[in-house]
Amino acid sequence: MPRWRAASHSGHGRFWGKGHPQADRPLSGRAAASARRAGGEVELPGANWQIAPTLTQGSPLSAEIATSSLDALPARAPSGPGLRKRQWLLAALLPLLGLALWTADRIAVRHYLSAGQARAEAALRLTANGLEADLARYEVVPQLLAEMDLVRRLVSQPDDTELRQATSEWLATENASLRAADIYLIRPDGETIAASNHLDGPNSFVGRNFSYRPYFTEAMQGGAGRFYGIGTASGIRGYFFSAPVFDFAGRIAGVIAVKVGLDRIEQSWRGDDFRTFVTDPEGRVFLSSEPRWLYASFEAPTPQRVDRTLATRRYADAPLPDLPVERRADHGSLVLRITTDGEARDYIAAAQQMPRAGWTVHVLLDSAAMRAEARLAVFTVMLLLGAGALGALILLQRRARAAERIALQQQANAELERRVQERTAELALLNRQLGQEVAERRATEAELRAAQDSLVQVGKLAALGQMSASLSHEINQPLAAARNYADSAAILIERGDHTEARENIQAILALVDRMAAIGKHLRNAARQPEDPLEPVDLAALLPETRTIVATRLSGSGAVLELDLPPGLPPLKANPTRLQQVLVNLISNAADAVEGAADRRITLSAQAEGDWVILRVRDRGPGVPPLIADRIFDPFFTTKGMGAGLGLGLSISANIVRDFGGTIACRDAAPGAEFCVRLPIARAA
């Protein structure tokens, strides 16, 4: 039994097709039962119910109900005590919401500051390791250079001018290979006697005294020296490595020093989120990604620290400012507030000692971005809490309304069940009518399929007839030419002229081959031709073409004129099929000029760019504009009954398209002109 869906509707009984409200019209009970909309909806006459297939007869209703009586029922307003209860609940939730937001802010700030601390410490480890590795490349260089014979000979003979010059040149070569800043050799009294920058004029170290530098005194005591500072001669910052030089008697006779420039290291620190700097043992910044902090005191300056810095002339004459730094703990992380040019910023700090160099590497990360992320996280939590509260309120309201609606629906369902049972009989009748309509439609579809099969068979027979007519049309002309050659050959044999007779027989064989090629072309008319395209010389093709159309030309009294320029490029075509096109066009022209006063037919050709344009013009009646568009259709002809099949131009058009060309016809006044456009064959 079909399933039906019921919904009330005030007004007259109507039948509705699905999705067709324009089919709404008054019906009687019997007319509604005979309505033809399979799977549609029916409104029973005289009732307020619209019934559609969603219910099973006799089963409990599972229907969508929209009755006018339900719309008329009053809605229940919220009661006074219930409203006051919700207001008290909202007042109690506000402090809890504030506490939750404060806690979320604390947790978020702690989390993001801890994450920033971890990032700073990871960057610190990478920076310290990179700095240590970069300096380690040059640490053993002074010791290796001190063992060279040239260096030892110079400290043994420090007044030898030529030896000084040779040593300076050798140090310059080694300095270029090592990519250091400078390499120089110092006597025990502190005077420089050879240097890699000996050619730098006023900036040369030769003759300068560096006895005040700590790296000199440490090396003279027999150890390896290290020192950072600004060059008093060049004014360029660098890190100095030194080693003692022993003469051939085993005594310390000098010090060799290697200066390494650190600007490239400092440059590599710039451009990221971190502020990176290095402080010396006195707490003063000597390497920094922030240029404004350079040479500033990161630790509180004391007189002793200042005196030690000035005694070593570490920073030459550079100004030594103080850097205002305020340290504090914030959510378990060390935060530094640094004021630069009147602007204060908070940074998460991480530091690591470099014991061998006596340095401290610092990495700072601006905490403003992390605090912004924390505020964003708290704001997101606020949105989520607000959305959750709003969703809870909406859910409670919907549940209350759903309970009220269910009560109203239960009252309406009882009335609906009674009325549906009264209409079940008419719905069953309608179902049978719909079944009969489905059977009729299936029978109609079967008849339609049979008719389609018949049309397919008729199409096949029509194609077979067109193929036969095409074969007859194309073979008639070479067959007539072969007959002429055969008659001529018989006469020549009777005369004993066997040579000419043999040539006529060869011409007949060539025509037979041509008829075979035409038949092959017609068999392949429904698919892409398989014969390859090749270069074709038009001038070489015309003598045989004249022979084929000679009978037709003489029969109509037509004269064929040729206008071919010398040096015409070869065409990209097939010779047999191109000759077939020329024969068809010349034969049509002969038919057109038959009985005319001017019976000339002109065949001309000329090259235009990558194309050759062939034109066949007659002086006949011409082609009216009304039939110019249909002249290449199969079986279309303007000749009388029995004078032609109307296939010659259709076949020629197909051949030209296979060559990649075009064919067109126009009224030449007088006569008609066919224009064939073919591509030029290019060398591979």
Automatic annotation (TrEMBL):
Main localization (coarse): membrane
PROSITE patterns for the chain: HIS_KIN
Bias-annotated ranges (Low complexity): 28-37
Region of interest: Disordered: 1-40
Domain Histidine kinase: 470-682
Domain of life: Bacteria
Catalytic reaction(s) noted: ATP + protein L-histidine = ADP + protein N-phospho-L-histidine
UniProt feature coiled coil, ranges: 399-433
Protein name: C4-dicarboxylate transport sensor protein DctB
EC number(s) stated in the UniProt entry for this protein: 2.7.13.3
Subcellular location: Cell inner membrane
Keywords carried by this UniProt record: ATP-binding, Cell inner membrane, Cell membrane, Coiled coil, Kinase, Membrane, Nucleotide-binding, Phosphoprotein, Transferase, Transmembrane, Transmembrane helix, Two-component regulatory system
Transmembrane segments: 376-396
GO CC aspect terms: plasma membrane
